[in-house]
Amino acid sequence: MENKNQTTQFERYMLIGSEQEEEVELLAAEKTDPQIMMLLAAAIAKVFEDVYATNMPLRNLADCLRIFYNIQNANKSEETMRKLVQAVISESFEGTELEGKDVAVGTIDEMVNDMEMDDAKEILGITYLTIRSYLDGRGGLLGDADISAYADDDEEA
Q1: CA distance 146 to 109
Q2: pLDDT digits (tens, 9 = 90+) for 41-70
Q3: Integer angstrom CA distances of residue 51 from 45, 46, 136
Q4: Which of 5, 33, 61, 72 has the maximum number of C-beta atoms within 10 A of its C-beta?
């Protein structure tokens, strides 16, 4: 029988930075592939850019990933995070806590620039509406106008 109080050991990580904020976040998931985490992060950040016409703050992105996809913040001490950033620069996680783990690395700035809004909608699928509503300050609640506008967009495609 599995111990329900056992701490999850994550094996899948995403180290994401923001050039604009000069910040780095380490996110972890039990089941989600790191490349999928990157696609989800890029899509959410693209929706934020569409709503607010500015880059999404890294901490807000981490919160959205936690809320909608159970991707947890795994940030370590400031010293460990510095070592991880240095590992990215040297292109090797050897000797770090992420050695041998499945890790994706990127910046929010690059991801948003590389993503088209239609791709973001496709990646997020049906959750696009809820995420957009959440980012728009409506708590993820949808109205008839949201649903019909989404249906109209699909019909045009």
Answers
A1: 28
A2: 999 999 999 999 999 999 999 999 999 999
A3: 10, 9, 7
A4: 61
What values do phi and psi take at 104, rounded to 5? -115, 145
β-pairing verdict for 12-18 and 23-29: antiparallel
Say how far apart CA 44 and CA 30 lie, in whole Å: 20
How far is CA 73 from each of CA 25, 39, 127, rounded to the nearest angstrom?
7, 17, 21
Element (H, E) at 155: helix 144-156
Q: Which amino acid is at 70?
A: N
Q: How far apart are CA 102 and CA 91, in angstroms?
A: 14
Split at pLDDT 50, 70, 90, the class of 126 is confident
Question: Can you give the pTM of this predicted structure?
Answer: 0.85
